[in-house]
């Protein structure tokens, strides 16, 4: 018996009850395809917000009784700097930037991405297919499109003729009248503004590191064809669910649908889910702009990866989320408080009545199954932990069950838990180690650093009176100060 799960489907622009292909009792796993990282740089926390939402989706499907086959691709070739199929390949640009081979860049940033995924407690997908391992499948797909008359050749590649796919504008609700060629888009030899490259020829004047022979000439695949080929290769058609960031609706996913459905003659995916962007005060966070924050940047500010996961739960995945260090630090404190409350519960208090635990979980599950409403689910978690009608043992069972969907490691004991932050800095030759059992605001961090430097300088100048005053101020702030043998000033928030 499956629990009802409602998801907002971009394809129909409404919330619908999720039913897998073949029905609820088909027994097969639910096929979920998620567009994965382009591995030419570190993932920024905006990218990671999208993978957290997709992980919650997978956990919700599991909580509803489905088994899941989850595929996330690795884009290691063909994603050009511009969505209009112009500009450099991001991978080749990354290699030039770092003076390494494209293959080394791909291996390095793929490994870094995997570390981020683990730190965020994101469940491993069943498969991580790499685009460069699927060139024959892409070539075959393009051949089929060619045989069916959907392609044409230009000086720089083989293109998909979107005029031959009348439903092209439907998915993203594009107004065809708004697509006027040549105004802002570099058309090259394209027939229609929306046409896109399936195969690009290697440039004659420059040597690419990644290129392959094809029936049309030496070159490399377009970014969009990669996802279609890998999704069709590894999941049953139609896909049950296809996910990605909201930026993919208009171009990447619209193109995936056109080239997949043109080739197979069948619907490509039943449900499309899109996560809204994490935004900065200054606008969007983009890998290519260098304007990005990584998990390491957060760690340096005392926010753990799971604190960031908690921060993502402060907004619904379909709403933009404005990032601030203060907001992330507050989420870290909230997570720490939850852990403290849970670790203080006496597990040996009373027995577990499963029915009572299920009843207590009901509001949490209802929020989760209402299009993954995590702000409401977290509120329901707090309510359950405060429920005096549950025994200690039942509260632990309740928290364990909720954490299967939340992925916050709520039952990890506090000591050695992930929310302990250590920040090492060196200012004016003074080494300072700040240890905090949770997020620390940048204001408090700067205050600690300023005082520690002043104290060190006062002591060096044998001004012990000032040094003692500062020690007293640290006590008032709830910070314990210790001088370590190597001269580092350790400041621990209590
Ligand atoms: P990329 O590695 O650039 O191909 O992007 C990986 C995923 O992150 C895609 O699903 C994007 O839609 C998503 N993404 C990119 N920027 C953001 C952002 N600022 N907030 C949320 N998701 C994003
Ligand atoms: Zn994709």
Record field, number of beta strands: 17
Name the overall outline: flat
CATH class designation of the largest domain: Alpha Beta
Strand content: 15-25%
Reported for the largest beta sheet, the result is: 4 strands, parallel
The CATH level-2 architecture of the largest domain is identified as 3-Layer(aba) Sandwich
Q: Give the names of the bound compounds.
A: adenosine monophosphate, zinc ion
- The end-to-end distance, rounded to whole angstroms, is 49 Å
CATH superfamily of the largest domain: HUPs
Report on the architecture of this protein:
There is one protein chain. With 494 residues, this protein is an alpha/beta fold. The chain has three domains: 6-275, 3-Layer(aba) Sandwich (Rossmann fold); 280-406, Isoleucyl-tRNA Synthetase, Domain 1; 421-493, no CATH class. It contains 14 helices and 17 strands. The chain has helices at 45-63, 90-98, 102-119, 135-147, 223-234, 249-264, 295-300, 305-312, 325-343, 354-369, 374-385, 392-406, 442-460, 464-477; strands at residues 6-9, 14-17, 30-34, 68-72, 151-153, 157-160, 196-201, 219-221, 239-245, 269-275, 278-280, 283-284, 321-322, 421-427, 430-436, 479-483, 489-493. The strands form five sheets. Strands 4-3-9-10 form a four-stranded parallel β-sheet, with helices on both faces. A four-stranded antiparallel β-sheet has the order 5-6-7-8. The radius of gyration is 26 Å and the shape is flat. The model has no long low-confidence stretch (mean pLDDT 91). Bound molecules: adenosine monophosphate and zinc ion. Adenosine monophosphate binds next to helix 1 and strand 9.
